[in-house]
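Predict the 3D structure for this chain.
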Amino acid sequence: MHRRSIVLCGAALALPVRAQAPGAVWRLASGYRAESFHTENLRAFAQAVNSAAAGALRIDVHPDNRLEPLARIFTAVREGRIEAGETIMTSLTGELPIAGADAVPFVVASYADAQRLWALQRPLIERQFAARGLVPLYAVPWPPQGLYSRRPVTDATDFRGTRMRTYNPTTVRIAELLGAEPVDVPMVQVGEALRSGRIDSMITSAVTGVESAVWEHIGHYHEINAWFPKNIVFVRRQAFEALDTRLQAAVRTAAAEAEARGWRLSEAVASTSTQTLRDKGMTVSRVPARVDTALKRLGEKFSREWVRSVGHEANEIFVPYYLQSPR
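Done. Predicted structure below.
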């Protein structure tokens, strides 16, 4: 080979990756606020891909339900109305029951636990998404769900005769098992429900508590880490496979970086939001050991019931998860 040919080949290897259809655009829909740490992470992911693609692919992020409402994003991507999207995995349990693993309560106690669970859940999610013409790119958890109460919780029996805010079947069941009256309250009505005395307690994250300024009506936040629900970002397989292999690799690299960054952001937001609750005068504490034990027993009950309802795929997650759990 002539020296000129060698130089040209080397230059070609250094060129930015290109898509088979130059100038492709992915519209990525999200139902979450533009200020959310999830959206911040989405934008960083898009910027990394756009930079690597050098014009061959552009990802445009559309938050705040502007492109599609949150409840319709999964279907919109699947049907090809948009190329990519982000949604909370628990919203998919009607069609993909396995997506609900991260919302089985009182099983995961830390971010490390949540990562172990996701490592077991991910292959099943990839398989289920592939069957629907979709490619999952990355998943990031919301901060853990904590317990807000008017009085400090010292025993599991403290909930008997009280009213607990609920918003899905899981929270209704938790309230019932604890002996509390479930009261369905949308998040936008939480402040009014607390002010009027309609609810005495609720399970939600420190982030949501800060956004709702709950310290105006309630005094205690218990870090029970009830569950770590995850958002998942995905793309239509047809759009992904239209890219050449080098650009596909660039997208996957940016997605892996976004996942790692997003988990760090989630943990940081959990910490700063919890500190804000303290700064606003709330008492932030763990529950006593006997309450923690009672909640873990509830988690074991929920996980057994979930395994029975979902079937053999659920065993692929929870059997190794419990076997790997620290003794």
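The chain is about 45% helix and 15% strand.
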